[in-house]
Amino acid sequence: MAGFFFHRAGFARRLLVTMGLAGGLGWTTPAMGTDEAVLKPRVPTDQMEEARGWKNPFEATEDNIDKGKALFQGKAFCVTCHGRDGKGFGDIPGLVGKLPRNFTDKLWQAARTDGELLWILKHGSPGTDMASFIPLVLTEEEAWQVLLYVRSFGR
Ligand code: HEC
């Protein structure tokens, strides 16, 4: 049942991805079933409980979201892969493998806790182009601000 639901919800977007990217840029796009793959947890099971316990110490005020946006588009260069619109189609033609996450996907937003997203910024998503950003590019405080901005795409 759940599979069927995700399938339906993601259909229009996947169609666009397939036509736009596979056609235009020559990326290999997974066929049907992308959403299930996207929703699958990235944090390893044995670290999940700890990661889910991490809470964002910053409130989602306009000021903090703006700070996150400046980092996202500036020194943390998230924008190069995730795009100004957060849809993750980016503009790096050389990118192969998994597509950057579409932050406007409400099912994905709902499937992740803030702590899991911080885990990703600490460790990256192994086997993909999503690298680790803490501590080399971002402090943990800055990462939490960026995540407030990432969350703002889901609203
Ligand atoms: C080089 C391209 C690239 C850059 C730069 C990049 N990302 Fe990603 N990001 C990706 C890809 C590819 C994925 C999908 C990984 C996967 O499917 O597991 C991803 C996934 C994610 C996810 C979702 C992980 C999950 O749990 O589903 C988050 C959150 C994220 N990126 C945040 C960021 C932030 C914040 C920045 C900037 C600090 C950033 N990314 C910079 C390529 C990039």
TrEMBL record:
The keyword Coiled coil does not apply. Residues 63-154 form the Cytochrome c domain. Keywords: Heme, Iron, Metal-binding. Pfam families: Cytochrom_C. It comes from the Bacteria. The keyword Metal-binding applies. GO terms for molecular function: electron transfer activity; heme binding; metal ion binding. This is Putative Cytochrome c. It comes from Nitrospira japonica.
